[in-house]
Amino acid sequence: GGLEGAAIPRRLGLRAPWRGLRFHPEVIAAEAAALVTSVTAHHAAHPQALGAPRPEPTTLARLAEAEAIAEGALLRAGPLLRRPEHAPVIPRADKQLAYKLIRALGGRGLAGATPRDLAQRLQRTERDVLRCLRLLEARQRLILSEGVCLPIEEAEAAREALLYHLSTEAPLTVSEARARLGVSRAVALALLAWLDQEGLTRRVGGARVRRAEADFGVSPLRPK
Hints:
The protein is an alpha+beta fold. Helix 5 packs across helix 6 and helix 8 packs across helix 9. The chain starts with a strand and ends in an 8-residue tail after the last helix.
């Protein structure tokens, strides 16, 4: 038998046009495997690129993408997809800027900074800073979410604190995230959006809840 497409995206926090469609799990798995192969080939051909363009927004393609992400084979980076182990090469011309950005962020902790702030501080163009920040994010040195940059170590510690809250006092609002971490609203929004992108949470109204696969350690596209 098939999987009812309406049930799967609902658990992922997605909406129509998936309603009422059916896909066999083997079809989704095969499409996910082909997508992973395609992204891997793109990395090999374009080592300096952040990732590969996401597939066309068809029902099966989006379910395959969600399957690959849930299995840990792919990560979503805005409009791009990449393998978790992919570390784009930082061009020689950007290495000094990358070093300065890491140092500048390292002293700010969870206060974070915007690309504009960093550009002004380092006297570089915002375009150059943003390009370099995206490379560093892909190399897992920082996160860039909702226009806020945070060092990866502080972001990961905040992630654990928020997930602990969700495991004991779900759901989680922006105000609760601010109070728990002692951060600004902008930083709280950035961290919550990052959790959504990582596939750990989803937004329900004005709060976040943990996704089913985060709670049970299984892909939501696998029949139980």
